[in-house]
Amino acid sequence: MSIATTIECVDVTWNPITGCDEISLGCLNCYAKKMSKRLFMMNQPKYANNFKLTLHEYELNKPYSWKKHRVILVNSMSDIFHEKVPLDFLLSIFHTMNNTSHTYLLLTKRIERIIELDSLLPWSRNIWIGVTIEHNKFIQRAEILKQSRAYHKFITFEPLLSDIDVFETNGIDWIIAGGESGHNSRLMEESWIRNIRDICILNNVPFFFKQWSGNGKKKVGRILDGKYWNEIPKFN
Q1: 14: which of 97, 99, 107, 219 lies 20 to 30 Å off by Cα?
Q2: What is the pLDDT of residue 151?
Q3: Given this model, what pLDDT does residue 28 score?
Q4: What is the average pLDDT value for the chain, to the nearest integer?
């Protein structure tokens, strides 16, 4: 089962791992936790453990069945670098990514584990590794990300919960930003998103704006200063 996605820059999600644990400010209103609870209540077998971290070995070969090239968000319902994910299972995921021609987007808050395992991971050019930075206090995650041997790196400032200081974009290939969605979403100031957008323009880094904070993307919209910011790098 792959989760349908409304993310404009992604074709499909692939979840060989589900479940996670809160480690950061951005986890408070985690959409994956809410969706897992809903699927658990619907008696979906894959979510029988609700949001407890669970490995799904039968999912490892799924991308081989997709013949047409796809941009795949890996583990939208978990964190691929969660400390409870065994190295051998992580390497199995990488084996699938290495041997298929899709573009894979990996996103984590656990950036330190990437560096811990980096020399053991077979980074092929179709794998993009990204880090979530939801608050200025975590801006150092960007510098840690740059230490990885991965060919392509990106940052997602989402849910954006503070203004972000000027940061170095060298070594960063793409930046995504957006407000928090859903009920009880926390406020994102317009100036915060403009600051990130302007840094991207100044440094010629593709910028993708996902949405303003609020309940319902269609309702809150994603227009910034009169236009959609849908800049996507050339994959592969």
Answers
A1: 219
A2: 97
A3: 93
A4: 94
For the chain, the three-class secondary structure string (H helix, E strand, C coil) is: CCCCCCCCCCCEEECCEEECCCCCHHHCCCHHHHHHHHHHHCCCHHHCCCCCCEECHHHCCHHHHCCCCCEEEECCCECCCCCCCCHHHHHHHHHHHHCCCCEEEEEECCHHHHHHHHHHCCCCCCEEEEEECCCHHHCHHHHHHCCCCCCEEEEEECCCCCCCCCCCCCCCCEEEECCCECCCCCCCCHHHHHHHHHHHHHHCCCEEECCCCECCHHHHCCEECCEECECCCCCC
Average pLDDT over residues 72-96: 97
Radius of gyration of the chain (CA): 17
Looking up tokens 């939801």, which residue turns up? 134
Q: What is the pLDDT at residue 135?
A: 97
Which two structure tokens, joined as six digits, stand for 218?
């269609």
235 pLDDT band, cuts 50/70/90, is confident
232, 173 contact by CB (below 8 A): no
Q: Please state the rounded mean pLDDT for residues 52-57.
A: 98
Query: What single letter denotes the amino acid at residue 228?
Result: Y
Order of strands across the sheet with 103-108? 12-14, 71-74, 103-108, 127-132, 152-157, 174-177, 207-209
- Domain edges within the chain: 12-228
Choose between 9 and 215: higher pLDDT.
Answer: 9
Whole-model pTM: value is 0.94
**For residues 206 and 230, what is the distance between their CA atoms, to the nearest angstrom?**
8
What are 13-24's pLDDT values in tens digits? 999 999 999 999
